[in-house]
Amino acid sequence: MHFSAVLRISGLLLMLFSMTMLTPLPFAWYYGEDSLVAFILAFGLTLSAGLLAWLPVARSGQELRIREGFLVTAVFYISLGLFGALPLWLETGAWLSFTDAAFESFSGLTTTGATVATGLDDLPRSVLIYRQQLQWLGGMGIIILAVAILPMLGVGGMQLYRTEMPGPVKDTKLTPRIAETAKALWYIYLTLTIACALAYWLAGMGPFDALAHSFSTVSIGGYSTYDASMGHFDSVGVEAVAVVFMILCGINFGLHFAVWNRRAPWLYLRDMEVKGYLAMLLGVGGLTVMMLGMNGVLAWPEAIRDGVFQTVSIATTSGFTTTEFSAWPGVLPFLVFFAAFTGACAGSTGGGLKVVRVLLIILQGLREVRRLIHPHSVIPVKLGSAVVPDRVVDAIWGFFSAWVVAFMLMLVALLATGLDFLTAFSAIGACLTNLGPGLGEVSAHYGDIPDVAKWILCLAMLLGRLEIFTLLVLITPTFWRG
Amino acid sequence: MKIIILGGGKVGGTLAEELSSEKFDITLVDSDADRLHGLRERLDIQTVEGHASHPDVLRRAGAEDADILVAVTSSDEVNMVACQVSFSMFRTPTKIARIRANAYSTRAGFFSREHMPIDVLIHPEQVVTDHIERLLQHPGALQVLDFAQGRMQLVAVKVYPNGPLAGQAISALREQLPKVDTRVAAIFRRDRPIMPQGDTVLEVDDEVFFLAGRRDIGAVMSELRGHEKPYKRIMIAGGGNIGERLARTLERRLNVKLIEFDAARCQVLSGALDRTVVLHGDATDSDLLLEENIENTDIFCALTNDDEANIMSSMLAKRLGARKVLTLIGKPAYVDLVQGGLIDVAISPQQATISELLVHVRKADIARIHSLRRGAAEAIEAVAHGDARSSQMVGRTLDEIVLPTGTTIGGIVRGEEVLIAHDHLVVQSNDHLIMFVTDKRRIPEVERLFQVSVHFF
Lengths: 482, 457
Hints:
By secondary structure, chain A is mainly α. Chain A has helices at 3-19, 24-30, 36-54, 66-91, 98-109, 125-153, 178-202, 207-218, 236-249, 253-262, 267-270, 272-294, 300-315, 332-342, 355-373, 390-416, 421-432, 451-465, 469-472, 477-481, and strands at residues 381-383, 386-388. The radius of gyration of chain A is 22 Å and the shape is globular. By secondary structure, chain B is of the alpha/beta class.
């Protein structure tokens, strides 16, 4: 294990991250807020922590290997989560405990969007933009993680997207080096953000809200600057823009790159995962709208508007709300909520199990059925016309079972803290899928649950974001021994 | 005419045999001395041992004055290089090569003088696949052959006891098929050709060749064989090149199962094919066949490269209840042995390929040649040129044309028009004539008929 390499890169990343605490300063200055001190203090602390980690090993020439990649990824997310909490804790010390600040920070960086904060409307603008920015940075990190790093580590079948594999999209081979890949993805991400902000602004948002919400839309995070979330604007235009960008950002960024590079939008419809993703959105959305309308819960125009927005927002794991969907009658809240378990496409900013995994699990199930009919047949699992190696299918099953076990264990732990079943179940579901809002007591915010439960949920968010195995591998003795 | 054949494998060997019986000078080149020795013992040919694409080997084979080079070694690359060498160093006029890999044919114009000088590409597996596919479109046919890009087709059927043909005179057939313009082009009885006359009575086990436009063939077939149901469920034994190609062309329309012995090959096949059920196992394993519902299979195609295995698995499949069996058989001797017994249709892969090659060694302007009855007879599509003065055909009615014995004209394709031969039909320039030559020794005479005399120039 090359600890000095891990330390060096973590220190560097932390120093880099500290710079992002400076961006709220102009807002604080412009709006005349007294949060200036908190941000400068947090910046100083983070920078010196990074410097402390980096200085002793700055000259070590150790290379980062794939194995250290697991450790770096985990250390990176955990330390950013903790240090990212500093400004929130320092600024509103009387208002947010460190637990709450950390929860908010983890939720932001993992683009979950679960919040403990209430009274957002009255918070300083600099704090609000910092929250949104956390999500935006988290989204950026996730794309690089999902498109470049996880495939390299081969976590949960994601080697399917490894550049040298003949994957569903032949040209996910972005560019040979991670640095180049990251740059290409960065441009796409930035372009989408700018487009989204402009669209929000044209749809009638103020410039500050447009920017803030574009951050959390493109990252499929779900933070808003208002307690009422998107419902605050009560505008069909704004909701339409949000729906379009949530769907777009739920698609694999590698695919966006291929489309951009070859100027070939039809590639979207040739990708099996996108087809499955759109089919799921259409199916769940259609069903929700029908049930809302037919049961007379809402008048048809509202049923369509709210049904479509909530389905897209929950299924892509964004977590914006325009209406209290958890209060919808009967099976509806669960129908919409369960769509989040599938989530968005792999390699996007969305969460959940990922469409491609669910698709492959279904295909694998169908294969078993066909095998029963033709015992001697040789049936590969195919995504489109590409054969998926058995190794990948196995990895996906492994991922799925680990996911379920993690879900169970944390569910029991949450129940032990005294939460009722619906709250505990939906809180774990919402955090493990990086969705955000749950059902029951946590449908609006997470402020009222015990501190222990918050830390458990932080872990759930991290596990969900790092695809479980990245963290799981760290607690195995063999990882450290070898 | 001097022909050099590179590669003495199945195709090369059969080709040498076929052509040497027709007064061509054949030189066969192969790197395997034993194989050459065997062929030289049996056939009247010259042989050269060596690497087929090396210039000195080609020179020894007489490439300097050869008219045609046929490169049919097992390697695409050797075939291509040999054609390039003989073009660049010996100016061989006609170069024919077998190229199996599709990858080379992706760019049009690659096989041209400027790049890779090959005049004719042959693809045996594709030829055989097409052949089988045509047979499957006409349930009950022994052979289906295309002329003039498929505008006219020739179909061979067998006369079964109690069938609609048995005991009928040919003239009576016309009344049976009043709306269809067709013609009985040839009849084989106990392996001997019979000139079909109006009063010829068909006997059981006769092989009858019908010629008709493509649209009419279906009507002829359904009339003759009762309404034979189209094939829906097909089982293919052998996942080689032919099996894979056939499965790929059929899997969208039909229910296809493919049995392959080799596990690794099964993986490849199952990846390449979309809807075909790929089965790993032995086609002679009756348990496997029963498990996969052989009794409800419409046609079982044995397409491995092992004649004996094909025959055995076909017979087994037939016993277990397959409606029809089709078998790929390389050895000509086996074909007559098995066809008509338990096995319904026997196909000779070499024969199909050789038909393709024969087109290029004939002297007249020949568009298509099909070997019938294992090469005993030929169906020829030839183009008439010239005018009434320079040609022996153009401007004359069919009954005025003096044909060599054993030769008949079955039909004429004029542009898009398909005409069944009648005595008063007048041949025009550029007509494609479909002819039958039941005695191969008469082929040079037929060729002469089509040659344009000097007045033309």
